Amino acid sequence: MCDMIDSQPAEKISKMKKLRRTLSESFSRIALKKDDSSLEEICVTKMSTRNSQGMDSVIKPLDTIPEDKKVRVQRTQSSFDPFEKPANQVKRVHSENNACINFKSSSTGKESPKVRRHSSPSSPTSPKFGKADSYEKLEKLGEGSYATVYKGKSKVNGKLVALKVIRLQEEEGTPFTAIREASLLKGLKHANIVLLHDIIHTKETLTLVFEYVHTDLCQYMDKHPGGLHPENVKLFLFQLLRGLSYIHQRYILHRDLKPQNLLISDTGELKLADFGLARAKSVPSHTYSNEVVTLWYRPPDVLLGSTEYSTCLDMWGVGCIFVEMIQGVAAFPGMKDIQDQLERIFLILGTPNEDTWPGVHSLPHFKIERFAQYGSKNLRQAWNKLSYVNHAEDLASKLLQCFPKNRLSAQAALNHDYFSDLPPRLWELTDMSSIFTVPNVKLQPEAGEGMRVFGKNNSHGKGLLNNKH
Q1: Tens of pLDDT along 333-365?
Q2: What's the rounded Cα separation, in Å, for the pair 164 and 197?
Q3: Distance CA 448, CA 72 (A)
Q4: Which of 36, 56, 63, 256 is catalytic?
C-alpha cells in the first residue's frame, strides 16, 4: 500500500510539470504574437500619421505623454518640415516603413526581404534667366560708372540685343538701381517701353539683356537741328504719353525723363528706357529723394527741395521735351546751378507766390529774396514755333505748370485737342501694339536727310545708362 501511495504523488508531480511546461510555451507564443502585433500597429500608426497629416490620425497633445517620452516625441515632430517638397516627404515615409519591416522581420527570426527604395524626383530649382555664353558682344555703345552697354547678338535666334553689363563689387554688392530697374521692367510689357529679354547673373557681373533699339531722341534731334517735323513731334509725343500712362496707372514714376532715355527704333517707335531711377509709387504718398531728373528737365518743385511728389514729376519733363522737339532747343537750359535753372523757369512762367502756388513758401529752398519777381508770359513769346501748330501752345502750357497739381496727367494729355487729327484707332490699341500698325500712321521725312538718321551712329548705350550706372 505504502508503495502505491508513494508512486501516485510522483506521477501527479510529473503531470503538473508537463502541464506547466505546456502553459509556459503557450504563454510565450501568445506574448510573442502580441509583441509582433503591437510593433506592426506602431509602424502602421506612424505611417498613417505622416501620410494623413491630421486627416485620419489623431495626435495626442504633449501633456498626455509620459515625461520620459516627451523629448523623443518633440524631436520627431520638429523634424517634420511642413514646407518640404512632397517628394521628400514620400521618401521619408518610405524609409521609416522600411525600418519597421526590417525590425519586425529580425524579431521573428526571419530574413528581411529586400525592399526597393523609391528615389524621389529632383526638387525644382529656381528658374534661370539665361547664360552669358548665349550672347555675343559686337561693339561697345556706352559706358558709365557701374555699367557698360554693348551691342550684342543672340546665339539662339540671331536677333540683335543690347547688353547692359553691370559690374559687381564685393564690398558694395549689386547696385540698388540695377535691382530696381530689373524688377520693374520684368513686369512692364508695352510697345512704348523697352523690353527686358533676359537677366544673367554671375559672380562678377549682372547683365540685363534688352531689345536692341537703333537710336534715341537726343541723337535724332541732333541730326535734325531747328526742330522736328510737326507730324513726327505729334507721333513721338503720343507714344511718350502712352508709355507714361501705362506706368503711371501702375503707380510707377520714371523720374528721369530726358531725350537720352527715349529710344527710337528704325520704324519710329519711341520707347521709355533707363528705369534705374524709376520708383514704384505707394499710396498714400511717401517722401523720395529730390536728387533726381537731369537739371534741364527737373521740375521747379523738386528744384526747391520738395520730396513729396507723384506722377506730375514726369509730366514736367514731358512738357520740356515737347517744347524741345518743336523749337529745336532745350526749354530751360540752365548753365550754372539750381538757382540759375529756377531763374530761367520763372522768367517765362512767372515767379511763384502763395496765390499761384499754394505752399511754395514752405519749400526748403524757397527764399523770396533770392528770386527776381517776374510775371508770366505766353509760351509763344519764348518759343515761337508753338504757334505754328494747332493747340500746341495750350498743351505745353498745361504741362509746364509750376504748381505740380495743376499739371495735366498723361491720360488727360492723350485726350487733348492737339491729337484730334490722329486716327481714332490709336486710342483702341492693346498695350503691346505699335501705333504704326494703324494704317497711314508713319513718320514723315525730316528736312534734308529723310530717315537716314537710323544708321551707324548709335547712342543706345546712353539710353540705358543713367547717372548712377
Answers
A1: 988 889 999 999 999 999 999 999 999 999 999
A2: 11
A3: 87
A4: 256
Per-residue pLDDT of 144-169, as tens digits, reads 777 899 999 998 889 999 999 988 87
Q: What is the pLDDT of residues 37-47, one digit of tens each?
A: 444 443 444 44
- Give the C-alpha separation, 107 to 102, whole Å: 9
Q: Which amino acid is at 390?
A: N
Provide the 8-state DSSP code for 266: T
Q: For CATH 1.10.510.10, list the domain ranges present in the chain.
A: 216-464
CA dist., res. 393 & res. 377, Å (int): 12
What's the CATH code, domain 132-210? 3.30.200.20
| Residue 66: CB atoms within 10 Å | 7
Q: Domain 216-464 adopts which CATH fold?
A: Transferase(Phosphotransferase); domain 1 (1.10.510)
Is 421 designated active site?
no
Burial-class residue 434 by CB neighbours within 10 Å (0-12, 13-18, 19+). Answer: middle
In this prediction the pTM is 0.67
Residue in the block written with cell 503591437 = 38
Mean pLDDT of 63-79: 37
Q: What's residue 183's pLDDT?
A: 81
Grouping H, G, I as helix, E, B as strand and the rest as coil, residue 444 is coil
199 or 19: which carries more pLDDT confidence?
199
Grid coordinates standing for 46? 506612424
